[in-house]
Write a structure and sequence with these properties.
By secondary structure, the protein is an alpha+beta fold. Helices cover 19% and strands 33% of the residues. The strands form 5 sheets. Strands 9, 10, 11, 12, 13 and 14 form a 6-stranded antiparallel beta sheet that branches. The protein has a 5-stranded mixed β-barrel with strand order 15-16-17-18-19.
Length: 360
Amino acid sequence: MTPARAIPILLALTQLLAPGIAFGDSIVLRSAARVASGEPVLLEDVAVLNGDAALAVAYAQVSGPLSPGERVRFTTADVRSAIERHTTSDEPEPAANWSALALSGAECSVIAIDADLLRARAEARAKRRAGDEPRKAERVHGAGTLRAAIRGYLSRTLGVPETDLRLSFEERDAPLLATPTAGRAVEMRTVGDSRRIPVAVSVYDGDRIAAEGTVRVTVLVRRGTLVAREPIRRGGLATDDAFTRGEHWLPPDEIPVEIASDGLHPPTLRVGLDAGEVLLARHVHSPSAIERGDRVVVRCISRGVVVRIEAYALEDGRVGEQVRLRRVGSDRRDQGFTARVEGRGRATAATAAHLGSTQR
């Protein structure tokens, strides 16, 4: 049989062996992952999902909640067991042959990080990258050097004036930093997101690369801050009268907290603060995005199809947490269902199996 004739037959056999699974759908186990402590470990946390069939089981629970700092390894066998449990209990229709999904990777090493700290770091990274366009060359006008171009680039990337940046370069990068940039195209992108940021740079003179390399920059940003007047215990409320206002030079990933002047809904401290300590995002619990009794828009995902419903929250929940909801119009004795909080008044659920009739 020629290779050309074998391909259609192979595709047909794939569909027969895996009904409901499209050719190319796959689950690739990550080598390592960070997850929020106190929350179930889901398939989407430990694997890269490709295709509708894989996305339909994104919320399969691989493990129960982990404690902060706990490390666990998950294998492909753990993933298959999670998919089987999920599809057996949640699928509204006869399940596809999920075991035929292409599953690769040896194992995933997982470490649990405090949920609020993990969320604060993610928000900080998103904020820093909001103005960045990776691999985009920009034209530098006028006289100058690569050192000055990097300062301007980091100013735009971090969204702060150059006067609010304090940069320290390494001596070994001095020759590259002295590269003239007038009339040349300079391509830059950050390849890290902490206090010490590597910046990959390429300087083009016409169609020739005049210089390239990675410059390591220690970055501090001047921020408006709140400073504790006196020690505040863990679990206490961060009220405006407990702090004085000031300015501090902080690493880019240290985000200061601003307290609403109306005094409503002050954040709760997850750690104690000493007098003179700056109030940062990692010090406080994230406020609830959904409160008991709120009307919530829920997107239910099943087999790659998204169904939108409305429900009432049966408990409070922060972004990323699982909460109990009851569909609008259902009997008050209904125990409801579980969904993940995605934002203010928004949540997602992995299936619509037990929600009764739905509307698209």
